[in-house]
Amino acid sequence: MLLSTWSRLCCRAASSRGQRTLSLFSSPGASNWSKVVSDAEKIVGYPTSFMSLRCLLSDELSNVAMHVRKLVGTQHPLLSTARGFVYDSKNNLQMRGVIVLLISKAAGPSHAASDLLAQDMVSGIYPSQRNLAEITELIHTAFLVHRGIVNLREWTVSDGPLKDMQFGNKMAVLSGDFLLANACTGLAQLNNTKVVELISSAIGDLVQGIYNENSNNTEENGLTDGVDVETWEEQTFLSHGALLAKSCQAAMELAKHDKESQRLAYKYGRHLSLGHKLNSDLQPFVKSGVGELLSFSLDAAPVVFHRQIVGQERWHQQLQQAKTLRNQLDYSKLLAVVKSEKGMSSAVDLCRYHGNKALEAIQAFPSSEARSALENIASTVSKF
After folding, report:
1. Lowest mean pLDDT among 107-111, 144-148, 247-251
2. Which residue of 18, 253, 279, 379 is surrounded by the most CB atoms within 10 Å?
3. 3-class DSSP assignment, residue 329
4. DSSP sequence for 65-132
5. pTM of the model
6. Rounded Cα distance, 335 and 292, in Å
7. Half-sphere exposure of 177 (CA within 13 A, CB side)
């Protein structure tokens, strides 16, 4: 029921033409971020880009890959999504998994885990925690695949044959469902009721987040009231932070750590993911070059702050002034307008706030190489 609802919502939330290209693996400051995550991967034992290799090499997904080849030559997002899993030179793919593994190692075994065998640990991490990291990535990957569904009402001949685009949508739904089903099977095999409850609620949060994005979508005309900063933060947590935060908490539960450790792990995941999203939203504003072709969401954090600061009436006037003769938005003009006020600096401040909160949460864990890696990751999301 939840799975089909998720697919249906993704279909309804298929983006408009101006925003069809999905930033699937966005990450702050690509070069710095890549180094920090690569260093972290060495600490937890292996590159997390191979975390779901067992699933990706299964017969079922091999058949899917063969069918996806039919989309070559079209503009269907599923094709670029598939390419991203194979090779992405600018970003590390599975950030969530490596953080779950790092926080598992940073916390170490608990005093209450007498029935868990220390000799089963690899690089200081229990097998169940590694399985959890893989499950987290499978859920996130399913989410990305489902988000690649195209709104066929906006299909044009340049996108490719209509039958191929319809086929691509079917493949996106079925492939995402397959990944999510595998994640749910692995979740049940952990044999921990609380962990099942935590991760299941995170899937529910993702569904709610998609629904909220669809309900508050301002991309088509830009003249709706949108959301305020507080609501933006709550909704962003559902779609971008809940899975990581609850997976970090679940990792503590699997090692039988106390409630305080679970709370701190959750806090780290929550603030890190919000800081990461803010950093990602800020990238077009802090790295825009002269003459560069720009496009950003009207629900990006700097825009939300700007809209709240100047008020709806003035915001609507600015939108109208930024439109071209063809009634299209000139994003360069709009970016300059947002940068002229305090919306951008307010978003930067909020990003640094969440980065500092993540750092604060991780300080309670014993000093170690894993904790240092988590600190580096939290510091990196606050840099521009």
Report:
1. 144-148
2. 279
3. strand
4. HHHHGGGTTS--HHHHHHHHHH--SSS-S-HHHHHHHHHHHHH---TT-TTS-GGG-BTTB-HHHHHH
5. 0.79
6. 12
7. 16
